[in-house]
């Protein structure tokens, strides 16, 4: 059954080398992969969104690549078995969705691995093209989960009060206002959880959108998401923030601080329990949503609109949930410009269209960290000052990022028949 063929992106005229391992090796290895899948299903907490949706990305990639009904049936059967193995008790719809996506993602990884192992990489180029990014995405998710916990151990105190004060200099606290709105409309909460936690599925969907345009893995998409995460995590140690939900505890979101009171506010780092993740500054959720949107330029209009909706939903989700301050999101905009320009591959890093926005995005990002740490009294001169800075920085970052060269050739304006035929991988991208 594992021998059913994936649709091949490579030309049928190309000779396929027979590289099968002996049956006595392939069979035990496939059995071992099955044991590893059951072990992962037993010991990983698939109620955790980052884990469930991280593996769920593999399911999206499998569905995007697979066109054979028998294989889809097999995936459904294995996914259902793993769902039954993982599922303990019903908590809510959002948690159930995370568990189901995690189970089907794990099933996808198992079937893809066995397919490539059994038939060989040369006979299963499409499966191999999906398998590697799916594995990397799962590894990325697990690494991110533990790295956030590490930041909590390293930084007992955070700069939450500084980010809170900057928001207050605008004349109101956006996260507290939207948090009260969320409490008054509880039907929004499941939607918020699914859209906020599903950012990893959006990453997989972006990859799936371009997967058929190249006959090998598109590592550049993985790299830009990884690079933003690694650099962002590094800055979590420079400006660690947890979010008002954790820093203010039961006072969020009902606490109201008058604007006049911020003039007497004494800023200092505040202790926050190590159990709460340090997830800013910047907001990586906002960064990832923006990167996904910026890189849908050659996809159909519905995909571009869906990506824009994700950005707007992320703004609401991050603030209303209390995971972030508006300051975190404002800082994420020039950070995104920096990452997008830095990782563009259709032009050389020596090209002014690439290095200039990268440098300016980095400078704006660092300037915001300085303002957040040392510029509070300047922001309190009047409400006009912080609003002007936010508007100018955000406009420059978004408009400039939208006009950057495409990250890879496959993201340039698609030919009219791109939806029908595979777009060959012509030429090599510029090397940094």
How does this model look, in words?
By secondary structure, this protein is mostly helical. It folds into 2 domains: 23-139, no CATH class; 156-411, no CATH class. It has helices spanning 23-43, 49-65, 69-86, 93-119, 125-154, 160-169, 174-184, 188-197, 199-211, 219-236, 244-247, 284-294, 301-320, 326-343, 352-374, 376-379, 384-402; strands at residues 157-158, 270-271. The protein has a two-stranded antiparallel sheet.
Beta-strand portion reads under 5%
Please provide the ordered H/E string of secondary-structure elements: HHHHHEHHHHHHEHHHHHH
Number of helices: 17
Please tell me what the overall shape is. Answer: globular
Span between termini: 44 Å
Largest sheet: 2 strands, antiparallel
Proportion of helical residues: 55-70%
Mean pLDDT equals 84
Low-confidence stretches: 1-18, 415-432
Q: What's the multimeric state? A: single chain
> What is the spatial order of strands in the main beta sheet?
1-2
The tally of domains stands at: 2
Give me the secondary-structure category.
mainly alpha
Radius of gyration: 23 Å
Strands, total number: 2
């Amino acid at each position: 059954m594992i021998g059913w063929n994936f649709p091949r992106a490579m030309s049928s005229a190309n000779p396929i080398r027979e590289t099968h391992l002996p049956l006595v090796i392939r069979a035990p290895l496939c059995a071992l992969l099955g044991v590893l899948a059951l072990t992962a299903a037993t010991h990983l907490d698939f109620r955790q969104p980052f884990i469930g949706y991280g593996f769920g990305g593999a399911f999206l990639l499998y569905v995007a690549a697979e066109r054979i009904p028998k294989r889809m049936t097999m995936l459904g059967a294995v996914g259902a078995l793993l769902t039954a193995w993982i599922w303990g008790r019903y908590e809510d719809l959002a948690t159930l969705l995370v568990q189901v996506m995690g189970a089907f993602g794990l099933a996808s990884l198992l079937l893809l691995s066995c397919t490539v192992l059994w038939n060989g990489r040369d006979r299963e180029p499409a499966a191999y093209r999906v398998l590697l990014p799916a594995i990397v995405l799962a590894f990325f998710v697990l690494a991110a989960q533990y790295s956030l916990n590490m930041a909590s151990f390293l930084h007992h105190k955070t700069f939450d009060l500084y980010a809170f004060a900057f928001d207050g200099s605008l004349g109101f606290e956006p996260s507290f206002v939207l948090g009260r709105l969320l409490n008054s409309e509880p039907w929004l909460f499941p939607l918020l959880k699914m859209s906020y936690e599903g950012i990893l599925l959006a990453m997989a969907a972006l990859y799936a959108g371009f997967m058929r345009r190249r006959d090998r893995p598109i590592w550049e998409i993985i790299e830009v998401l990884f690079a933003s995460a690694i650099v962002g995590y590094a800055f979590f140690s420079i400006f660690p923030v947890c979010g008002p939900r954790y820093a203010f505890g039961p006072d969020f979101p009902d606490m109201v601080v008058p604007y006049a009171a911020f003039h007497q506010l004494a800023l200092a780092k505040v202790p926050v329990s190590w159990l709460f993740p340090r997830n800013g500054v910047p907001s990586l959720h906002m960064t990832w949503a923006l990167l996904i949107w910026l890189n849908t330029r050659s996809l159909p209009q519905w995909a571009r609109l869906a990506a824009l909706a994700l950005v707007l939903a992320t703004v609401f989700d991050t603030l209303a949930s209390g995971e972030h301050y508006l300051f975190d999101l404002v800082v994420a905009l020039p950070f995104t410009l920096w990452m997008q320009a830095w990782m563009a591959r259709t032009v050389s890093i020596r090209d002014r269209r690439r290095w200039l926005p990268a440098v300016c995005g980095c400078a704006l990002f660092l300037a915001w960290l300085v303002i957040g740490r040392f510029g509070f009294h300047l922001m309190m001169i009047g409400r006009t000052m912080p609003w002007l800075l936010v508007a100018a920085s955000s406009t420059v970052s978004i408009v400039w990022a939208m006009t950057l060269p495409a990250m890879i050739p496959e993201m340039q304006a698609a030919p009219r028949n791109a939806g029908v035929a595979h777009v060959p991988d012509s030429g090599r991208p510029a090397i940094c």
